[in-house]
Specification:
Length: 315
Amino acid sequence: MFNPEKFIEKTISSLQKEIKAKALIAFSGGVDSTVCATLANKAIGKQLIAVHVNTGYMRKNESEQVKKMMEDLSLNYRFVDASKEYYLALKGVEDPENKRKIIGEKFIRIFENVAREEKIEYLVQGTIAPDWIESGGGLRDTIKSHHNVGGLPQDMELRLVEPLRDLYKDEVRKVARSLRLQVSDRQPFPGPGLAIRIIGEATPERTELVREACDIVEKEIERASDQKIIERPWQYFAVLIPIRTVGVHGDKRAYGNTIAIRAVHSVDAMTCHYSMIPHEVIDVISMKITNTLKEKVNRIVYDVTNKPPGTVEWE
Ligand code: XMP
């Protein structure tokens, strides 16, 4: 039986032994990196520098909120706005694995720059078990390269420390609760962000569409679960399928993109079942998205695929 208090005690002490110089932590504001940063902060204090990268593929207002979190946690932090750089690097890139690798590599290069400036030698990452299990290695097939594993370049200059690598998400949440972190029940958000929620090229224009749609899905699903209409799913978001179909707006022909709504129940992300969201909730989401993104989006579909054979994210 997993004991979060014991895990916290053991991890702080092993981090103190393992990290012998300044360390950097990639801080996304999700449960994994927040738990990891809190433990490392307790272990090595100001020797730890948290770095948040705004890739341009974050959710609505997310980077501003993350900045505030780093302040509230009294972390020594750096905030890097690299959105323009990311958009440029992903220009014309359609293949999901290429997208993931480019994003992962860019993260590491940014961290290496900060590390050089701050004379940092260690990189602390919130990698958890499903991240590396599904990223392949040994006899395992690569299902997808999670950015914090598969995207790591061979010539990385920093020494990697991954205190959560044997934990599953439910265990990380238990640690978060035990540390009294507000993020303990936040839904997971992938490292490559909205870039893998856009099928094909992740242009800035498409990103704005999926950002808005994700925001609507999150708000409406949270509203429905607060009102006890549904049980809050494990993860819920929107995916942009940049395939245009014909519709009608008022008395005018429309020819817009498609948005898929994805909501799943899972225990550890290794498998999932799509959530049976009542039609009344889907209806509100559908209307809000098509009203907000008029002319750009005129078709909404609901994803009824489990994992396997699907995965949680579409790319
Ligand atoms: P999949 O799509 O592989 O997702 O079924 C399983 C869980 O992992 C999240 N995910 C990621 N998390 N870096 C992460 O930190 C990644 O590159 C990544 N890709 C997927 C996904 O959101 C789901 O919770």
